[in-house]
Amino acid sequence: MPVTEDDFTYAIENTKVVLPPQSRLETFGSSVLNYYLITEEMDQINLSRVREGVIHADRPQIITPSQISKLLLDGFGENAQNYAKWINENGTRFAFLKYGFCIRKNEITTYEVHDPMEAVVGRIQNMVVEKNNPLSTVLTGVDDAWEVCLLKFMMDYIQKSSGGNIQDFKKRGLL
C-alpha cells in the first residue's frame, strides 16, 4: 500500500540518527555506506525489525532541487519513487540541496528481534562502534515507510557532506 504525504511527514519526523557516519561522502569517487535501520512493529509489543544494508553513493554531481525526482533510485520501491516526486513538487522546501548523488540501495538482510527497540538499538550501536567503519550508521525510523527514512537520512548526510565537497570542487576549479 503506497504511503501518503502524511506518512512522508511522519517518517521524516521520526527518522533518527543514533550513530552517524564518522566521515563525509567522497567528493571525487563513490562512497559505500553501511546502514542499520531499526524500526518497531506498532501492532506487537517488543518486536523490532532490523534492516541491514549498503547504500552506494556515486560521485557528486551538481543538480537543482527540481531534478531530485530524476535521481536514479535503483532498488527502491514505489514509496521511495513517490517520495522523490513529492520532493520535486515541494522543491522550495528543499532548497539546501544544491547537488546530489545517484543512489543505489542494496538491502542485505531484514530480521526481527523480540526485544524492546531501545535494547536492540543499543546492541547494534555497540556492534557498529566495535567494527570501527567510518561509513557505518545506525538509524531508527518508521516500519511502513522505512525507505523514506533511509532517503531522509541520505538527504541530511548529503547536506552535511556538501560543505567539504564544495570546498574540494572549488580547490580544483570546478565551481
Could you explain the architecture of this structure?
- Strand 2 and strand 3 form a beta hairpin.
- The strands form two sheets. The protein has a six-stranded mixed beta sheet, with helices on both faces. Strands 4-6 form a two-stranded antiparallel sheet.
- Mean pLDDT is 81; it is low at 94-102.
- It has helices at 5-13, 78-89, 117-131, 146-171; strands spanning 16-19, 31-40, 48-57, 61-62, 73-74, 99-100, 103-113, 136-141.
- By secondary structure, the chain is of the alpha/beta class.
- It starts with a helix and ends with a helix.
- It has one domain.
- It is globular.
- It has four helices and eight strands.
Strand content: 25-35%
Mean pLDDT: 81
Morphology: globular
Largest sheet: 6 strands, mixed
Which helices and strands occur, and which strands form pairs?
Elements: H1 5-13, E1 16-19, E2 31-40, E3 48-57, E4 61-62, E5 73-74, H2 78-89, E6 99-100, E7 103-113, H3 117-131, E8 136-141, H4 146-171
Parallel strand pairs: 2-8, 5-7
Antiparallel strand pairs: 1-8, 2-3, 3-7, 4-6
Characteristic terms for this protein:
4 helices; six-stranded mixed sheet; single chain; alpha/beta; two-stranded antiparallel sheet; 175 residues
